[in-house]
Amino acid sequence: MNLLIVDDEKEIGTFLSHLFSLKGFTVHKAVSANEFYQIDFTSHIFHAAMIDIKLPDGSGLALLKHLKKQQLRCQVLIMTGYSTIKTAVEAMKLGASDYIEKPFDDIEVLEKQVETLLKRTQSANPPYIHKLAKEAGMLIGKSPAMNQLVETTWKVAQKSVNVLIEGETGTGKEVLSRFIHLASPRRDDPFIGINCGAISESLLESELFGHERGAFTGATQQRKGFFEIAGSGTLFLDEIAEASSSIQVKLLRVLETREFMRVGSSQTLQTNARLVAATNDNLQQAVDNRTFREDLFYRLNVVTLELPALRERKEDIPLLIHHFIERNGQQSITFSPAALDKLLSYDWPGNIRELSNVVTRTLTFADQDSDISADDIVLSSCSPALISKAEKPSLNTTNHLKQWRNEKLADFNASNKINLENVLTEIKQLETDIGKEMVQQALQNTFGNRNEAAKRLHISMRKLRYLLNEKNKTDVKKS
Q1: CA distance 342 to 340
Q2: Does the reported pTM lie above 0.70?
Q3: Per-residue DSSP letters for 162-198?
Q4: Alpha carbons 61 and 70: distance in angstroms, whole number
Q5: 272, 320, 403, 434 - which has most CB atoms within 10 Å?
Q6: How many whole angstroms separate alpha carbon 307 and alpha carbon 152?
């Protein structure tokens, strides 16, 4: 096995060369970027490389990119003594297989990392990754962007760092978080997900941290929170941007100290859970707008993974359709070329969730052994212009309101008296009915995503639930 070591500290290079030579490696050393670039990579084939991230005459990231272009299958371990974890993660995005922090406190750990790298090959990794993806409910497809994301995610999953997942509604943020959990050493521990935007502040605090008996009205017994239940597993917080300022403060404390207290208790508890957060908002913009804490943002933003929109990976649509057909157990049904063209030409504002709904709806009304035509497919009209129109009272509704008002005024003018309380009650009922219709229309346009519907209507989740007559209900919706 051939090993390349690039480090400007000669003592470290000599030590590593001696260590791995005794283990049977053929070691080649370089003490600078200039010396690295003089290597003839056509005649020297390396199975693994250890590259220092900071060299006096160059960047370890640049060396990594050059090496991966020359020898794609070479497994690279980045050595970092100066960089932050974010720099090491950037190296992994560029093709590094792992990183280790200097100085090396445990030589056995270093040896194990190098041996693990050599067990990996480009031909062996994909099947394993695809198996994990399938277990998580994710189809990777052919898209280069998606394949690169999954490979990076798999590497990041091995490390106990917080992860922030960004992506539009319906791109599969919770599915990716499950993949992180399954690909990590925590896979045998619990995975728990909660939507921060679909639950009230007081209840969210209790759900996350638990409560003691008598802590508030209705707390008839002690209850463990998700941080406690997750143990050493993974806690997924969806729509993290919707968390209140109070909840943000408490989350910051947990991330900084790994400690929390149940509601109504003074006892400090410990958590070892890994936090994965997700949002379809721009958190940096939320920080700039002072709606999200900057310190919490940086605690969450150790590693950011961005899911591509479906319109950016349309080559995967046929594979996704086949996946949904198999999932529904209707393999005898096929989609005609015209039907596929119709689906490929659509922009999919609701992303994979919308595609799943469209395919499922189409299959529901299809006969067995049928060939789906373009006319059989009904797509939702979700362009911004149409949504804006749908979420405003129609001209017909406005005319009805004017007619109702004119009739009431005419009645009052004719008799010079009217029961104003009854009129105000009717107005209140009309307000409720129209509000509920607008909410239902918004929910239809957002494929049932209540958080997104509330944003489009410029109302809170609490107001949305109230308009749906659910003020006494709690809805923890997954996105």
Answers
A1: 5
A2: no
A3: -EEEE--TTS-HHHHHHHHHHTSTTTTS-EEEEEGGG
A4: 14
A5: 320
A6: 12
